[in-house]
């Protein structure tokens, strides 16, 4: 048996790949659920119901999907240019940090002016955080995978330090949390009496925008060319270093925006448990979407549904909610294989 | 007391060097494991998850009544299994080593947490086991058996890599797989073998955490140690002896930041000290990046007959 590249991958196959991968992951994790002794079909039924079964469940899933769309886009734009940004978690926290600093009452602006300022501050903080590793990569040839991963830990310690020091909320009863952002910096709710906020609209808008940039502009063309073959792109006169650096700013910026939107849309203030791994799960989102900006939305909704649904399911039966994390990891690995099968065909001999 | 005399006091105490050897152990094992994988041409970003699974599985086996050495073997076996998964996806299938590795890390970590929670649904304080005891030797030599095992393994890995045909084969598939194939070597099998063996070593690093350094399993207990090992491999230019030196040097700084943190008496935020290991690793990468002589075929999948 050997693998032979397909000359072109039909759209149906590209769409089928993530569906097949998810089905395979669900089947594999069914073994794990069965091992716990819980009835598998009922467990998955409860998971599905918990994710989309009611108005409340649906808005919770959409709320959860918001940061995942943004970190998914962050991974997608970076991976497209072969910039292995595994630091979205840290960039997200830097964005959140910028949001509580800028939106914490420092500026006395009306909401229509303050919200954009806070969001842009979050993006800038996230972007600059990735710019460091990107500069080290293009200037000194330092592998960005390890530097971005290590920076996640540095950023979390920095946030912890500030939450116990300069940014500590004096009214916070001694908890390590920041003071809340001012009311004018809060993102409006999309649906009354739910947690769903305007961050979702921003995320959806950006995924469409990025898709347009990617397919309709020279910028997007350069990004794709550099990702496909940096040497050929350089030979064709493209500014490879500049493309790398602006991709870093964009990718880090998207992750930073995720953090700012979580603070201003959902939590109101910053704590050390703002993100239950949104940065890392963004990588899974991007891979399930095959790095396509519109596909990211679908993939993020799926991952969000798994997490929200698993929480509901684990309340009803003795299956730990870490099953969601296992499902997500299994989906990523299955997706890699499914993507391979979409791009290659198996040949005998 | 001024800074220098504090520093001198720390460096002259036996307790400090005991701590250095203890802190170095998981880095020695993890770096060695990653080095074996990378020497065969496969980057293994699964290390963080493999260490977590090793820590959980080894501890769980002992908690369920197995003896300590059985726990160590269980950890190694679990690590080898995750390594086999990473190898199966990256070697014969040639999938992205970056993304597969992240996937293996996510899987190893989440599986560990899932199993731990399943067995211990409402453990608020983590239950403990009786860990390895330090040998009755004077001064800094009073280490647990796993530390001695780690240092012996450095010698063993160095010997195998440089003095045996197996080691030559491993290095060859990492440098020039086509030439290895021409010599009649099975590139796929050798790469898979190296990744499985390396992953077992990584899992030992995890087992050391729960069975020697501590006596319980905590969430997030690996805490980036795996990523630091990847930096240490680069720092060591893919050589076992230098890996040992790197891990020791790193442990000296880590032990020193702990002591200085205590000596500073809260003048500086403790987080600043805790950042040091990660920042040092980044600095080390920058310093050696220019003259890094990485295995030529690292991260390049090999398919028979394709160029």
TrEMBL record, chain A:
Chain segments annotated as transmembrane: 12-36, 113-136, 148-167, 196-213, 248-270, 282-310, 322-342
A GO molecular function held by the record: transmembrane transporter activity
Keyword Iron carried by entry: no
Membrane topology, record value: Multi-pass membrane protein
Keywords, alphabetical: Cell membrane, Membrane, Transmembrane, Transmembrane helix
Membrane is among the record's keywords: yes
GO CC field: plasma membrane
Signal peptide start-end: none
Protein name per its UniProtKB record: ABC transporter permease
TrEMBL record, chain B:
Matches recorded under CDD domains: TM_PBP1_transp_TpRbsC_like
Keywords: Cell membrane, Membrane, Transmembrane, Transmembrane helix
Protein location: Cell membrane
Signal peptide bounds: none
Superkingdom of source: Bacteria
Gene Ontology MF terms: transmembrane transporter activity
Principal subcellular localisation of the protein: membrane
Residues that span the membrane, as ranges: 6-29, 41-62, 68-89, 101-120, 140-162, 192-211, 272-289
GO CC annotations, alphabetized: plasma membrane
UniProt membrane topology term: Multi-pass membrane protein
Listed PANTHER family: ABC TRANSPORTER PERMEASE PROTEIN (PTHR43370:SF2), SUGAR ABC TRANSPORTER INTEGRAL MEMBRANE PROTEIN-RELATED (PTHR43370)
Protein name as annotated: ABC transporter permease
């Amino acid at each position: 048996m050997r693998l032979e590249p397909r000359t072109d991958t039909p759209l149906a196959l590209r769409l089928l790949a993530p569906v097949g991968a998810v089905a395979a992951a669900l089947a594999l994790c069914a073994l794990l659920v069965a091992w716990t002794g819980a009835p598998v079909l009922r467990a998955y039924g409860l998971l599905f119901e918990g994710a989309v079964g009611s108005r409340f469940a649906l808005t919770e899933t959409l709320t959860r999907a918001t940061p995942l769309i943004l970190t998914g886009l962050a991974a997608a734009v970076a991976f497209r240019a072969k910039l292995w940004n595994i630091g979205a978690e840290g960039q997200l926290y830097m964005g959140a940090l910028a949001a509580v600093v800028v939106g914490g009452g420092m500026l006395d602006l009306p909401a229509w002016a303050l919200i954009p300022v806070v969001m842009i501050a979050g993006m800038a903080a996230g972007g600059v955080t990735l710019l460091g590793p990107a500069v080290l990569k293009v200037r000194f040839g330092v592998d960005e995978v390890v530097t971005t991963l290590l920076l996640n830990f540095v950023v979390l310690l920095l946030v912890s330090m500030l939450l116990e020091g300069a940014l500590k909320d004096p009214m916070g009863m001694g908890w390590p949390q920041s003071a809340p952002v001012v009311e004018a910096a809060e993102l409006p709710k999309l649906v009354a009496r739910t947690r769903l906020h305007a961050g979702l609209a921003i995320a959806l808008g950006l995924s469409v925008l990025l898709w347009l940039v990617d397919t309709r502009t020279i910028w997007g063309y350069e990004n794709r060319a550099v990702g496909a073959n940096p040497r050929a792109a350089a030979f064709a006169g493209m500014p490879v270093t500049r493309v790398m650096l602006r991709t870093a700013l964009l990718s880090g910026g998207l992750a930073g925006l995720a953090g700012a939107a979580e603070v201003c849309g959902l939590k109101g203030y910053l704590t050390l448990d703002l993100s239950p791994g949104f940065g890392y799960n963004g990588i899974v989102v991007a891979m399930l979407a095959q790095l396509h900006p519109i596909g990211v939305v679908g993939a993020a909704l799926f991952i969000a549904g798994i997490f929200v649904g698993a929480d509901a399911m684990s309340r009803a039966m003795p299956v730990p909610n870490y099953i969601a994390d296992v499902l997500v990891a299994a989906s990523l690995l299955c997706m890699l294989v499914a993507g391979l099968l979409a791009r290659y065909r198996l040949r005998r001999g | 007391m001024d800074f220098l005399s504090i520093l001198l006091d720390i460096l002259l105490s036996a307790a400090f060097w005991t701590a250095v050897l203890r802190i170095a152990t998981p880095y020695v094992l993890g770096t060695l494991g990653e080095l074996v994988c990378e020497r065969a041409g496969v980057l293994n970003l699964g290390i963080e998850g493999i260490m977590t699974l090793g820590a959980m599985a080894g501890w769980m086996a002992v908690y369920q009544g197995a003896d300590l050495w059985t726990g160590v073997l269980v950890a190694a076996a679990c690590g080898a299994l995750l390594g086999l998964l990473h190898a199966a996806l990256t070697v014969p299938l040639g999938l992205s080593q970056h993304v597969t590795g992240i996937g293996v890390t996510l899987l190893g970590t989440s599986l560990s947490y899932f199993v731990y929670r399943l067995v211990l649904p409402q453990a608020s304080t983590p239950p403990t086991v009786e860990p390895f005891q330090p040998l009755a030797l004077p001064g800094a030599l009073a280490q647990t058996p796993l530390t001695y095992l780690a240092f012996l393994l450095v010698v063993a890995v160095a010997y195998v890599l440089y003095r045996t045909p197996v080691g030559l084969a491993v290095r060859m598939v990492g440098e020039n797989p086509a030439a290895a194939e021409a010599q009649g070597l099975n590139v796929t099998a050798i790469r898979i073998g190296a990744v499985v063996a390396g992953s077992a070593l990584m899992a030992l690093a995890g087992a050391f955490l729960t069975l020697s350094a501590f006596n319980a399993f905590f969430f997030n207990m690996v805490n980036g140690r795996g990523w630091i090992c990847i930096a240490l491999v680069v720092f060591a230019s893919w050589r076992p002896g230098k890996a040992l030196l790197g891990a020791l040097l790193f442990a000296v700084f880590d032990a020193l930041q702990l002591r200085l943190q205590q000596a500073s008496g809260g003048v500086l935020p403790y987080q600043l000290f805790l950042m040091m290991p990660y920042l040092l690793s980044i600095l080390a990468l920058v310093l050696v990046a220019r003259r890094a002589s990485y295995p030529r075929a690292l991260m390049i999948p090999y398919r028979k007959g394709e160029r």
